[in-house]
Design goal:
The chain has four helices and no strands. It has helices at residues 10-27, 38-62, 90-106, 112-148.
């Protein structure tokens, strides 16, 4: 399954997951529920996800390195400042939190499976290959960073 490594753009995976959540909501309505607070939770989580993702992009921009998820070996700088002091993958964490916001918006517990699928896919086919490339490129510095900062949160 190595052929899937760094092939599907994370934003596309987010969009596919969102579309599948909508399909689940639309066609499996009997599992859905509602509560007046759910839209507020959804909006808050989605907004937090956007802010976390932007913070990650901002740090890459400041270091003038690539945000291209297809070519992790093209990274020109090792970024461990700003939000990267708290999470190794703020852009992916932002997408995940946004997806959890969408989960609350559609309020269908079956969609939890899509969130879990997103995490599993990202870990196996995006993050692990990226970390392999970062270790090859930045060596001991990246390994020390990896030991001190968690993958997600």
């Amino acid at each position: 399954m190595k052929f899937l490594e760094c092939k599907v753009p994370p934003a596309l995976l987010f969009a596919i997951s969102t579309g599948l959540m909508w399909v689940t909501f639309k066609y499996l309505k009997s599992f859905s529920f509602s509560h007046p607070i759910l839209p507020w939770i959804a909006k808050a989580l989605f907004s937090i996800g956007i802010l976390i993702g932007i913070a990650g992009v901002w740090e890459f921009w400041k270091k003038k390195t690539t945000v291209d998820p297809h070519r992790p070996e093209k990274a020109s700088s090792f970024v461990n400042s700003g939000i990267y002091q708290f999470t190794r993958n703020p852009m992916y964490l932002g997408l995940l939190i946004g997806l959890i916001g969408i989960l609350f918006f559609f309020a269908n517990p079956i969609n939890i499976l899509l969130v879990i699928g997103f995490i599993l896919y990202m870990n196996r086919f995006q993050i692990i290959p990226e970390e392999r490339a970062m270790t090859k490129k930045f060596g001991e510095d990246f390994l020390d960073y990896k030991e001190s900062v968690r993958r997600w949160i």
